[in-house]
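Sharing a chain and its predicted structure for anyone who wants a worked example. Both blocks are below, sequence first, tokens second.
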Amino acid sequence: MVRVTAYVHQPEYNYSHRYKNLTLLSEDVKRFLLEYDQIILHKDLYRGIFHIQLREVREKVKELLRKFEAAPYDDGRAKNEKELFCCKLRFDDTVDLRRHYRAVHNEPFVRFANVLELKSSLAKLTHMRHRLTNYITYGEEKTLTLITNLKRMLTKISATLKF
């Protein structure tokens, strides 16, 4: 008889202790914020996949913030009151800034596609989407730290999707 290690899937949400789930979600959101730059490293190469995943995560974060009755910082649209500068020039909107950037600084940031990093990034986005979905469904507890980190995550994702 050959022994084989069997992996048993355990649900991420623990119904017995609700504050433990709050702690786990807070840690996941904090880790996501710390690793965000690594997660979107291949965003330029695989734009379609990342935009779909990021939009789904952004919608889940907005839904969770609405559930907690905390208004998100942004609604996904660009804000015109912010001044944009590049090369000591002022731009009124992001369209002009993008046009200038492509014309003058035509050096795209291209990394060699590392399949392991790509799969890891997509897995982290999927994991965060599932954690948010579970917490939207079952979670009721909130802390100020969690709400602040969710708003920071929403701001980062919206900025990535805009630019």
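Comments welcome. The radius of gyration is 19 Å.
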